[in-house]
Every structure is written in structure tokens, then in C-alpha cells.
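Lecture 7 notes: from sequence to structure.

We start with a single chain of 107 residues. Read the sequence below before looking at the structure.
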Amino acid sequence: MNPLELFWWTGFPYLALGFLVVGLIWRYRYDKFGWTSRSSQIYESTLLRWASPLFHFGILFVGVGHVMGLLIPKSWTTTLGVSEHVYHLMATIGGMAAGVATVVGLL
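Now the structure, written as C-alpha cells:
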């Protein structure tokens, strides 16, 4: 693995996380009362009233699905009697639904 690949896979995620933390602290200090979920523009359009929640819930389920897929051991699904075919079928159907919701909300 060359040094640039090593940076992208090991250093960059920590750098991005550091920027997130510093940005959150900076925004809290200098715009404390500007943190709100209300926006005058987002709910003006009927289309955005549907698309924004669709995108956000879709991306949330995409993330949760990936975390569950990585953290649930195969021994647990075997113990519950879920075959590999059924597991992949459930993951594919759920993943497609979440992905479609995300993309439709984004568009």
C-alpha cells in the first residue's frame, strides 16, 4: 500500500472527523441561536415538503442497514433459523426500498 492510499484509508477519516468536531464547536460558539430545524424556504414548496423527509428517512435506513449488516454476526441469524438466502433477500429488498426513497427524495 503506497503512502497516499494509506492516508486516504487511515488518515483522511480522522481528518474529516476532526473538521466536523471543530466546525460544530465553532458554529455553536458563534451562531448559538441559529441552530434550528425551521427554515422559511424548505416548507414553501409542496414538493420539498414530501421530498425532504423521504430523503432523510431513506438515508437513515440506508445507514442503519449497513451498520446492521456489518455488526450482526452470522451465528445470530443461523440461531434464529434465518437461511442465507432469506437474509440476503431481506437485505436486498430493504436496501432497495431505502435506496429508492433516498434517490427519489434527492431528485
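The CA atoms of residues 44 and 50 lie 11 Å apart. Keep this in mind for problem set 3.
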